[in-house]
Design brief:
The structure holds two protein chains of two kinds. Helices cover 55% and strands 0% of the residues of chain A. Chain A has helices at 3-15, 36-50, 56-61, 65-74. In chain A, helix 1 (3-15) packs antiparallel against helix 2. Chain A starts with a helix and ends in a 6-residue tail after the last helix. By secondary structure, chain B is of the alpha/beta class. Chain B contains nine helices and 15 strands. Chain B has helices at 11-24, 32-53, 55-61, 81-84, 116-134, 157-165, 184-193, 205-218, 246-257, and strands at 77-78, 97-101, 110-114, 139-143, 155-156, 169-174, 199-204, 228-233, 261-266, 276-278, 284-285, 290-295, 309-315, 325-337, 347-354. In chain B, a hairpin with a 5-residue loop joins strand 10 (276-278) and strand 11 (284-285). The longest helix of chain B is centred in the N-terminal third of the chain and has 22 residues, at 32-53. The model of chain B is unreliable at 1-5 and 361-370 (pLDDT under 50). The chains are: A mainly alpha, B alpha/beta. The A-B interface holds A 29, 36-37, 40, 44, 53-57, 59-60, 63 and B 96, 116, 119-120, 123-124, 127, 131, 136-138, 150, 163, 166-172. Bound molecules: zinc ion (ZN). Zinc ion (ZN) binds at residues 279, 281, 283, 285, 340, 342, 344, 348 of chain B.
Chain lengths: 80, 370
């Protein structure tokens, strides 16, 4: 699985949504499934699958799928 | 005064620009005079904003000029109005969540109406302020509460506090069971796993004392978290019969859990995110995003350094409800400005309990029941 697929899978698993819903534009708190509680589950999932440690700035800034990619790139996770 | 004239931006854009700049600045490194100069335009914008959006705010302060020179000129809402009125500056479709402060069961809860923007600002502000004390990293976290607090259908101030601090945590563990008894198994496993690494503990002051400290003592249990940081909030008023003060609290937690890094913060459920953290010298500090004014309980005139009066809290965070300036029912005194031994700039102060109910003479307390 490439990193993009892994990312989509992490969102799907953590938020309990369809893979098709995981687009760059998907934004925190705009769907009931991505609330602040789910956000912490998502963060744990991303840390787990990409083997990274996100700090408080990262998780506060991670307000969309596009942002998540940018933040993960800081930790050398590349999305092609 | 027109905010529109400033490079043609809307008041909202102007507010966002000024607010973002503040959030990026050092929370404790700006001297009081410079800080007030930065805050004044934001509070003017907020005052005008809420005048045009909140019926109640307009009715109370429609004839009050926006502040021109000092933050103390800003009008303030008595905190009890949050129990009596639906204070909103948003339409129904913008409503994201209603925060309810618990209080006692006999009381009407205070209601705070949040949209997404204000809610996001609250989380970010709390993170920026707390980072200053506990760092940016996230730590294994022991929450001194029961998991049931998060399940309630209404969003309580306790849940909001836990959720805010959870940004600093990893793999949160709840220290209490749903019946508020000590989850000894969970606590011991947590302590065993992290006995020599940094961890974060968070809870409300009375929960930490009544349901954690007291329960550990009853069971003759000690746990070792020498690298732990405890953050707690909520005040001492529920502990007044217990004769617990800040130093007893700290000493007891040191001897029971080996904790030597303990941070207390003062904050209102009506101004979530805007918190006043106690420094190493034991003083509460106003961060850049917030400030306080001490007022005479009778005349309500601002009081100078050292005088004890009612605490008015100011916060640049709320746009969805008119809660940027609130007169609390807490007594306090400003201890100094820009010269705390910890090095932080701005005002530092002490909270000295609550004013007895009968002494509170609420200004602007004439609202209709909503
Ligand atoms: Zn200090």
């Amino acid at each position: 699985m490439d990193n993009l697929q892994t990312l989509k899978q992490a969102f799907t698993t953590a938020l309990g949504i369809d893979a098709a819903a995981v687009t760059d534009e998907l934004t925190y708190n705009t769907i009931p499934e991505w609330d602040s509680t789910a956000h912490m589950i998502l963060v744990a999932e991303l840390e787990n699958v990409f083997d990274v440690m996100l700090d408080t700035d990262d998780i506060i800034d991670m307000s969309s799928v596009a942002q998540a990619k940018l933040i993960l790139q800081k930790y050398h996770v590349s999305f092609g | 005064m027109t905010t529109q004239s400033l490079s043609g931006r809307s008041p909202q854009e102007h507010y966002e620009t000024l607010y973002s700049a503040l959030l990026e600045a050092d929370m404790y490194n700006i001297a009081q005079a410079d800080k007030e100069a930065l805050l004044l335009p934001l509070f003017k914008l907020l005052h005008d904003w809420h005048l045009t959006r909140s019926v109640h705010y307009h009715r109370l302060f429609g004839h009050t000029e926006s502040p021109e020179e000092a933050l103390a000129e800003l009008p303030y809402l008595a905190v009890r109005l949050f129990k009596q009125l639906a204070l909103k500056s948003i339409s129904e479709d913008q409503l994201f969540r209603v925060l309810q402060s618990s209080g006692t069961t006999a009381q009407v809860p205070a209601r705070v109406f949040l949209d997404k923007d204000t809610s996001a600002r609250q989380s970010k502000a709390l993170v920026r302020i707390m980072q200053h004390f506990i760092g940016k990293q996230r730590l294994p976290m022991l929450i001194i509460d029961s998991p049931a607090v998060m399940d309630k259908s209404e969003f309580s101030a306790r849940a909001a506090g836990i959720q805010g601090m959870a940004f600093f945590g990893r793999k949160p563990v709840y220290a209490l069971n749903n019946d508020m008894s000590l989850n000894e198994e969970a606590i011991c496993a947590f302590a065993k796993q992290h006995n020599n690494t940094p961890v974060l503990l968070f809870g409300f002051t009375f929960m930490v004392w009544l349901h954690f400290v007291k329960a550990l003592q009853r069971r003759n249990l000690k746990i070792a978290l020498p690298k732990g940081v405890l953050v707690h909030s909520g005040g001492w008023k529920k502990l007044s019969e217990q004769q617990v003060d800040n130093s007893t609290f700290k000493q007891t937690l040191k001897s029971l859990c080996g904790l030597s890094h303990i941070y207390n913060f003062y904050g209102m459920a009506e101004q979530v995110g805007s918190v006043f953290v106690e420094c190493e010298a034991g003083h509460l500090h106003a961060p850049l995003l917030a400030d306080i004014v001490i007022r005479d309980p009778i005349s309500l005139a601002p009081l100078p350094i050292g005088k004890v009066g009612l605490i008015q809290v100011l916060s640049v965070i709320p746009t969805s409800y008119p809660g940027h300036s609130i007169l609390t029912e807490d007594k306090g005194q400003v201890l100094g400005v820009d010269d705390c031994s910890c090095g932080r700039k701005g005002q530092y102060f002490a909270v000295l309990g609550r004013l007895p109910k009968t002494e509170i003479r609420g200004c602007s307390d004439t609202g209709d029941k909503a």
